[in-house]
Fold each of these.
Amino acid sequence: MRLSWLVMVASAIADTVMTIYSVGIYGLEIEGNPIIKYIMEWIGHFPGIFLWKTICIGIITYVVNTIPKDYSWLYYLASVVWFFGAFSHVVILMN
């Protein structure tokens, strides 16, 4: 369980770094999630995405650790989504 949590956090970091880098080059229009875009406009690029990822990690960790049913698959789901986000930024930057 600890490894899956670490993979989730690593994917969140990768997505955060690539998003900040892409936004620095192409502007906020590159961000596809309207919630994150709004938060980034409201409090700044890095603080906005850092706040969003922290809230997401906190909610997922809370759910997995407090609900008796096994929801550890949420770690893997978040990891896949965030690695996909980071990878999509890499593809955009390469073109």
Note: The longest helix spans residues 2-26.
Amino acid sequence: MYTNGNFESHLAALLFLGTLALQLLLCVVTMVLFFARRKWVRYSLLAMAALLVGYGLLLATFSFTSGESYETTWVFDVPKNAQSLRMLAELRGFPTYVLIGTKPARGMG
């Protein structure tokens, strides 16, 4: 799964979708203000610019900061006849992706 630096992918998607929704709302407001009160159009345009700059700064900040890395050795005592083993790793209630070994699994390319 792709993560943007140390920014979790689901949070990055929420940030993008929230920014997109606010940008669309500001576009509608700008169109309405263009016909109703032209003097106020500049404020909605400034809000759109500030939103885009803020999104860009957040994206750049989380893209260029180094994420935390942990290395842990786990030892499992698994019976020889066990099949379809699965492991779930969680950190504070969120599922976390774990790399086990260095070789890709069959079917993973």
Note: The two ends are 14 Å apart (CA to CA).
